[in-house]
Amino acid sequence: MKDGFVYVDESVRGIRWDAKYATWDNFTGKPVDGYLANRIVGTTALCAALARAGEEAESRGFGLLVWDGYRPQRAVDRFLRWSRQPEDGRTKRRHYPNIDRAEMFDKGYVAARSGHSRGGTVDLTLYHLATGELAPMGGGHDLMDPVSHHGAQGVTPVEASNRRHLLAAMDAGGFRAYEREWWHYTLKDEPYPDTYFDFPVS
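The structure corresponding to this sequence follows.
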């Protein structure tokens, strides 16, 4: 592994994870280039910030479940190639019901140069400490739709409240939100703000 990067689950107490791009459960419908294991990797700075966010979440009765952290550039390149392929409908209803594949980039849901590849960005959600159940958020991971935006209409009061809990926890950890995706947060003080890495997650 690259110096300065670690496995999140080995560095952050109580963290749960499900590395979506290492599985078939993502918008491409298959494991993505560069993800060789279902693990989450991030910078040591990211993990320290996640630990702080986790403490705030715990005070609210929640834990953190991470879907993605560091993302190899080859995975981003794979997203771009996938967006140019003919539509097969396998993941459209769940992940991008109201747009075409190519629009993911135009509308800001996927980037050709991703903050994930710098090691300072995470995709994550909350779970209830009392039950282990995921907190309802008004749409799942990588639902590329206006309902996923912060402050979106069409979510229930409970879902909106849970989004605010996540936002408060991540803000306490030193992260900034991305307005189009309630699950996407980037360190305010990234250690590698201009470097896009490509080593695999293994």
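DSSP finds six helices and seven strands in the chain.
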